[in-house]
Amino acid sequence: GDSVITVQLTEEDKVEDDVVFYLVFTGSTVQHCTSTRKINPGSLETISPGHDCCETVKVALCASREGHPVLVVAEESFQFVQDEAYDAAQFLATCAGNQQALNFTRFLDRSRPPAADVDFLDEKVALAFRHLKLPAEWNVLGADQSLTENIPRETLMHFAVRLGLLRLTWFLLQQPGGRGALSIHNNEGATPVSLALERGYQKLHQLLTEEGAREPDSWSTLSHTVHSGDYSVKHHRGLDVYLLTAEA
């Protein structure tokens, strides 16, 4: 989800300016409808929806004009695949509270990837987390809520801060247990806040300590989503397109 899709129109489909084009994605349990913007007479652009599972869906290009019935201009198949970022997000979400797994993630830290790689990883994993269907009872600190803040342990927040993942840290802060994780010490006595300070991650430290800290700039911050029952409407401000998602 949230990739840019370009639609090339054939000569016969290049029509008057008052025609509006939509893409309709029909999956097994969910349907998405996206508006498009015209780049030129022969090209449209929109944002791919975040889908609920990996499958091949039918995509219909529809044309709408005031006072006329909606026309299906063309149909194509579109495949949603599970990439490495989604796998990583799913692994991390499942391992919240699992000390063995969280200690293993510290192995990643020893390689200290270049800043550009960290930025790419941060954007992709944070975006994948947003598209995960997290259980209602999911918590940053894991399933065992009987543990007190005094018990030293690794948390997902330690992981995100240790690698300098700004956007993932912000996402976790908004989830249940996110704020509580800030005061938890690991076995070395470090909290996520002290880790950020120790590593010189100034922006990250501000994010964790300042009350009015704003969400870091990212592709996902360009989107605003409103949920209502089985429906959600998302506005992508970057391309100024809308996405309606409905349970089929």
From TrEMBL:
Transmembrane segments: none annotated. GO terms for cellular component: actin cytoskeleton; membrane. It comes from the Eukaryota. GO terms for biological process: adrenergic receptor signaling pathway; positive regulation of canonical NF-kappaB signal transduction; regulation of Rho protein signal transduction. InterPro entries: Ankyrin_rpt-contain_sf, Rho_GEF. GO terms for molecular function: MAP-kinase scaffold activity. This is AKP13 protein. It comes from Mohoua ochrocephala.
